[in-house]
Amino acid sequence: MLRIVHKLRSGFAKMTVREAINSAMAQEIERDPNVFLIGEEVGQYQGAYKVSKGLYDRFGKSRIWDTPITEAGFTGLSVGASMYGLKPIVEFMTFNFAMQAIDHIINSAAKLHYMSAGGLKTSIVFRGINGAAASVAAQHSQCFAAWYSQVPGLIVLSPYDCEDARGLLKAAVRDPNPVVFLENEIMYNEAFEVPDNVMDKDYLIPIGKAKIMKEGKDVTIVTFSKMVKFSMLAAAELEREGISCEVINLRTLKPLDRNTILESIKKTHRVVTVEEGWGQCGIGAEICSIINESNAFFHLDAPVVRVTGADIPTPYAFNLEELSFPKAHNIVEAVKLVLK
Amino acid sequence: MIFRISRSCFSSISVKLPPFKVHHLELDQLPQTTTTTSAELLAYYKSMQLQRRMEIACDNLYKQRLIRGFLHLADGQESIYEGLHAALTFDDCVITAYRDHCIALLRGDTPHQIIAEMMAKQTGSTKGKGGSMHYYKKATNFYGGHGIVGAQIPLGTGLAFAQKYNKKPNVTLIMFGDGAANQGQLYEAANMAQLWHLPAIYFIENNLFGMGTSIDRASANTKFYTRGDVIPGIQIDGNNVFQVRETLKFAKKHCLEKGPIFIEAMTYRYHGHSMSDPGVTYRTREEVQQQRKTRDCINYVKNIILENKVADEHQLEEIDNTAQNEIDIAVEQAKVDPVPPSTELTTDVYVDNQNHFIRGILYKDSILPKSQ
Predict the structure, then answer these.
(1) pLDDT tier at B227 (50, 70, 90 boundaries)?
(2) For a surface tag, which of A18, A43, A268, B19 has the fewest beta carbons within 10 Å of its beta carbon?
(3) What is the pLDDT of residues B137-173, one digit of tens each?
């Protein structure tokens, strides 16, 4: 493995989310000869965002496959390979490009086990960056969490920090179902301290289990991916004003961890959901509905407040883009609204 | 029926193959004749009759509304499936679109399982959850059974990729029609197959019509065997079981040594695209009848049998009746089989279904994970 883990003190190391994903892939490719990485620029270019850096030099062209710019082709090819019994990790340069291949993710992979009455399965991971980056404009900034989360047969994961990235990606590779793994470009550069056990080659995080990042008693904030960072910033600011927020990092979008969310509501009685994607039929909408359908509804002291991306294709201008997606101050405002 | 097993059962009969058209290949690489035996001729005849009778039975069942939804029949094209079955093994993969019943039959499903599936019974090949377009059998490397035109092409290319990755001495037969041959994903997949020398046979069943659109109205270049560009190609008579067989044997050898190949098999479907298409608005009844009279793939084998005195009309009629009987029994059995139990509604969504939440129509009807 690359010497990318910086030892800080005994039992801990510091690494970026990029390095976390890189090391997780390296370990899984080492562990199982059926696992391979495939996508545009993943090999000789060292990865469009350098996430697969060093893997080609270490594992060679039989395990790290550079493809032409043909998403429908290489995604279908990968699904076919997984039908035979291999375990592809398919990298999309961004999930915006995966729309060219979405028929294979949904119709060829997700539905296959059911249509074949269990006769065929596709153990495959589709990973790549999702949501807004910085100034990349409308066609490169969409969040696809809601679309994929709706589909029966798919597992949908979205890591926030290094622990998430490592544990969830390794769990995804080892899961027998097709998994959509939504990463975030801005988070790639963020560094986190990780305890030694997170670097273990068998470190796994259970799929379908959310993580309480910070305990609190006044409001529950439910979120995922980069929005966890802003939620934590908002929670710190609110703490200074005497408002105690519980921040839930969903980690898995499908299946959603209903229990953790509902138990938290019974404690705090108020909920704010935060997502970068568009509001209609989004993750926040689903959480509102989940609450509605459970007895946790009767524990609410106020309606749920959703914080979402604005209902617009993403503009290029920096100042406009800043107004397009939730920031910490929007979350602070939402918490104060739900407490009113 | 008693057959006198004579020496002539095993002595070879020579068959002249129709001419080939080639692209980036030399004609002298391909055989001009092949041989067969009495036993083999009768086996092909019987098997193709069984396919034919099965497809016709499905037509009747559909008209009785015992089969519903989409039904795409392959009667007229049986020699393609027989030929591929003769040339390849169960370690070679096959994948196709939705005109898949005959392949399901040859890859190990019984007529009963196939018909029961279309009649939505629990005894069907995929428990009644797939239907006409979704047959699969991992054990014999048959990967379906796909409803989206062209999707099977990159999938099949992936099967070939996996065979090569695992260093198998086997190939993948990727079947699609003249309509699918214009799909972009074919070119994306074939490009990678050629780059990476994958053992992929791109097999075009050219029955002259993509649904209701003739090849001339859909394709700027109707020489489908040349559409692989730098990839070699061969055009054959798909209604000649021997030419299909010998070409696929050649193709397999080519794939394992060099890489992908395009095979275009000229054929004809007697039915329309599906049961909702009468098949005579874009072609004439006379044309269909003419095809039946002069190019039927089963009659071709029948004539060889009669000419070589392998069997007489009466004996062939007995084979026909045996095949029909087998189908009739399968239909009658399927009619009384039960439909899938309602518990099957929510099974097989995930491989480890018991670990997952499956929402019902009302939340209260949802299936919770075992752990909850």
Answers:
(1) very high
(2) B19
(3) 999 999 999 999 999 999 999 999 999 999 999 999 9
For residues B248 and B250, give the distance between their C-alpha atoms in angstroms, rounded to a whole number.
5
Q: Find how far residue A268's CA is from the centre of its chain.
A: 26
* Buried b / exposed e along A297-309 (16+ C-beta atoms within 10 A): eebbeeebbbbbb
In the predicted structure, residue A5 carries a pLDDT above the cut 90? no
Place A6 in a pLDDT band, splitting at 50, 70 and 90: low
Residue B161: which of A77, A114, A293 has the nearest Cβ? Answer: A77
From the centroid of its chain, how far is CA B198?
A: 22
* Dist CA B346 CA B331 (whole Å): 28
Q: In whole angstroms, how far apart are CA A202 and each of A19, A171, B334?
A: 17, 9, 49
The answer to whether residue A71 is catalytic is yes
Closest CA to A18 of A192, A173, A144, A135: A192
* Inter-chain residue contact A113 with B148, CB threshold 8 Å: no
Average pLDDT of the residues in A76-100:
98
| pLDDT single digits (tens) B93-134 | 999 999 999 999 999 999 999 999 999 999 999 999 999 999
Element (H, E) at A155: strand A155-157
Is position A140 annotated as part of the catalytic site?
Answer: yes
Q: Given the structure tokens 């009747």, which residue do they identify? A: B60
The minimal CB distance from B165 to the residues A86, A120, A293 is found for: A86
Are the beta carbons of A79 and B155 separated by less than 8 Å?
yes
Residues of chain A with C-beta less than 8 angstroms from the C-beta of B352: 176-177
Q: In one letter, which amino acid is A259?
A: N
Angle in degrees, 0-180, between the axes of helices B297-307 and B78-87, rounded to the nearest 10 = 70
Q: Which residues of A45-77 are buried (b: 16+ CB within 10 A; e: fewer)?
A: ebbbbebbbbbbeebeeebbbbbeebbbbbbbb
Rounded to 5°, the CA angle A58-A64-A68 comes to 140
Structure tokens at B316: 């062939």
The answer, yes or no, to whether ipTM is higher than 0.90 is yes
CB A148 within 8 A of CB A180: yes
CB atoms within 10 A of CB B313: 10
Q: Which of A19, A28, A40, A71 is catalytic?
A: A71
Residue B114 neighbours by CB under 8 Å, 6+ apart: B54, B101, B104, B105, B124, B125, B135, B330
